[in-house]
Please model this.
Amino acid sequence: MPKMHQSLTQDRIADLIDRAETTLDSPGMCVACGADAEDVEPDASKYIYDCCGKPAVYGVELIAIMAF
Model:
């Protein structure tokens, strides 16, 4: 399991889950730099994030599993 960025709090993850369930967004997050990522499949794993270049973007489902 990758180490999650310190900015990925339970509140941010709860917001991510809420967005995935109530909107047409496909949110994810980069666990390396903590940035939001858009158009990410819910079960995405190790997608490369354009801004930091690291393979650390995960979808909402995997982030929720890793966090709790």
About this structure: The chain has one domain: 10-67. The mean pLDDT is 90. Strands lie at 28-30, 36-37, 47-48, 55-59.
